[in-house]
Amino acid sequence: MEAASAPAQPSIVRRGFDPVVHGLLIGFLAALAVIPIEIRSLFGLPAHPLLLHAPVVLIPLLGIAAIALVIRRDWLARYGVALAIGAIVTLGATNLAVGAGEAFREARDNAMTSSTLTAPAGESGETGESGEPGEAPSGEEGEDQQLDEHAELGDQLRIVMILFAGAIVLLVAADQARRRGTEGPIGRAATALASRRIDLALKAAVGILAAVAIVWVVRTGHEGAKVAWSEEPGFGNQDSPPAGVAPPYGEPGE
User: Is 40 in a helix, a strand, or coil?
Assistant: First the structure.
């Protein structure tokens, strides 16, 4: 009589290089690598107003999905890799949008400086309240303050997204490494993160950072809209930009 066969064990991938786990970590580093990139224009238009739509849409969706997956453990196992890929893409898009914003602001400042230096003395919009050429009109001071606030919030959003995406990638990579039996340093790190306290702390961090990221992208977008569509004369008003500076969305070829 044949001995009863042992119950089948689930297949476990044991390898030093795991394409899923290591791929997520490499993707996160690639998203960080685009931080220095400052795209000035796309299709003849300023790049920032075009690129900003990606983080504005993706960050809230990513935040909601992340909160859902840390609440439902079975969802994390099923959709965690997709969530981590979404986090990497969103981080890359955010970094590109912030970099394009910095290039956009630099181009604006250069254009305003050039128009101020070349304009005849006493020309309207190129003199201050005292009538001296080269002084910024008082209306531009408020716009510059709004632009400073928008830029500062953008830099803060970038930091929040780095932490948020990093927490997601770490959570998912550790979960996948444990499930797939990944060996090497990654596997040992995943085992260390398997502690219930650490796991709960990491999930709590993901949930908190998700909420912060959603709030910050709304705040940043609101300040950007105030700069673009302000009723005050100057760069924020489509009808009366400073001399030599195109409106925020510009015209092709300008």
Answer: coil
CA 90 to centroid of chain Cα atoms:
6
pLDDT given for residue 139 in this prediction: 52
List b or e across 229-244, with b for residues whose CB sees 16 or more CB atoms inside 10 angstroms. ebebbbbbbeeebbbe
Q: Global pTM?
A: 0.75
Cα torsion through 22, 24, 29, 32, rounded to 10: 180
Q: Of all helices (H) and strands (E), which one includes residue 41? A: strand 41-42
Is 94 within 8 Å of 153 (Cβ atoms)?
no
DSSP string, 175-206: HHHHHHT--HHHHHHHHHTTSHHHHHHHHHHH
Tokens of 180: 């797939």
- How confident is the model at residue 204, as a pLDDT? 95
For residues 99 and 64, give the distance between their C-alpha atoms in angstroms, rounded to a whole number: 25
Element (H, E) at 154: helix 138-180
The CA distances from residue 156 to 53, 70, 179, 211, in Å, are: 18, 24, 35, 14
pLDDT value at residue 231: 46
Rounded to whole angstroms, how far apart are CA atoms 196 and 219?
35
Residue type, 213: A
Give CA–CA dist 162/170, Å, rounded: 12
Cα-Cα-Cα-Cα torsion 91, 96, 100, 103, nearest 10 degrees, comes to: 100
CA 181/CA 179 separation, integer angstroms: 6
Tokens of 216: 């910050």
Q: Splitting the chain (254 residues) into consecutive groups of 10 residues, what average pLDDT does each group show? A: 45 65 93 94 87 96 97 91 97 96 81 66 49 50 78 95 97 84 74 79 96 97 82 46 46 46
